[in-house]
Amino acid sequence: MSTPDTPRFPRGLYGVTPDWADTDRLLAAIELAHAGGMTALQWRRKHGAPAGLRVQAQAVRDLCLRLGLALIINDDWRLAADLDADGAHLGLEDGSIAQARLALGAGKLIGCSCYDRPELAARRLREGADYIAFGAMYPSSVKPDAVRATLDHVRDGRRLAEGRAADGPAGEIRHPRAAVVAIGGITPGNAAPVIRAGADSIAVISALFEADDIRAAAQRCTALFDAAPP
């Protein structure tokens, strides 16, 4: 049964794919991360020919369906709709939640980058985001110039998400609530304070997929959530 504190987005490790052209390598890595407890995956590719990218995205979708793993498509809600993915992640330049919701449908997940801006998170929640993402929490090798968020931003986001659940549109009570995601430079060794601050999910790229033992890295992240109250 959902409660006011139950998030709509899966709690736990949220893997974000590296920019690998080798699809077989990527699929094998996803399986290892899932075996270690990863609860959701974001497919994120910034480089490559459109036809090749779509082939890889479809292969990832097929694997996630087999694994029962929630798949979010980064940036491209149109592709997410075409693949019947579980949702899309939107940055500032990726269109509106209203556009994405119309294309994806009411049952899909829409997440939004909120950087270090709680006021943006509040607006995205009013627009119907299923999760709000803050970061970079730590220096990021993937985005070295990214703005830096703090634990206070995560705490603020959690309060906003819980408040929005209690006071939805026109006073409607919304269960479950939107989730709070933290991203940027997160590793199994530095994630615990982020989770204690209120992150429902930690989005991890390099510390997961570039790890010597992907399954073990996922297990270490998952154990942090097992040890922390929801």
Question: Summary?
Answer:
The chain is α/β, with parallel strands linked by helices.
Descriptive overview:
Belongs to the thiamine-phosphate synthase family. By secondary structure, the chain is of the alpha/beta class. It has a single domain (about 10-225), classed as Alpha-Beta Barrel (TIM Barrel), CATH 3.20.20.70. The protein is about 40% helix and about 15% strand. The chain has helices at about 25-35, 50-65, 75-85, 95-105, 120-125, 150-165, 190-195, 205-210, 215-225; strands at about 10-15, 40-45, 70-75, 85-90, 110-115, 130-135, 180-185, 200-205. It has an 8-stranded parallel β-barrel, surrounded by 7 helices. Strand 3, helix 3 (about 75-85) and strand 4 form a beta-alpha-beta unit. Helix 5 packs parallel to helix 6 (about 150-165). Residues about 165-175 have low confidence and may be disordered.
Topology record:
Elements: E1 12-16, H1 23-35, E2 40-43, H2 50-67, E3 70-74, H3 77-83, E4 87-90, H4 97-104, E5 109-115, H5 118-127, E6 131-134, H6 151-166, E7 179-183, H7 192-196, E8 201-204, H8 206-209, H9 214-227
Parallel strand pairs: 1-2, 1-8, 2-3, 3-4, 4-5, 5-6, 6-7, 7-8
Spans where pLDDT lies below 50 across 5 or more residues: 166-173
Order of helices and strands: EHEHEHEHEHEHEHEHH
Number of helices: 9
Largest sheet: 8 strands, parallel, barrel
Report the CATH architecture: Alpha-Beta Barrel
CATH topology: TIM Barrel
Whole-number tally of structural domains: 1
Mean of residue pLDDT values = 92
Estimate the global geometry from the Cα principal axes: globular
Question: Going across the major beta sheet, what is the strand order?
Answer: 1-2-3-4-5-6-7-8
Percent strand: 15-25%
- Rg to the nearest angstrom? 16 Å
CATH class: Alpha Beta
CATH superfamily: Aldolase class I
Number of strands: 8
- Residues in helix, %: 40-55%
| First-last Cα distance | 14 Å
Task: Give the class from helix and strand content and strand pairing.
Answer: alpha/beta
